[in-house]
Amino acid sequence: MGFLFNTIKRSFLWNYARTTWQWDILCVVILVFIFLSPKSWFDNSERQQALVHQSPTSTLLVGPEVIEKTGDNAQLQDQVRIITGRSDAEVIGVRKVAGSDGRTRAYEVDIR
Question: DSSP string of 39-92?
Answer without folding.
Answer: GGGG--HHHHHHHHHSPP-EEEEE-HHHHHH--SHHHHHHHHHHHH--TT--EE
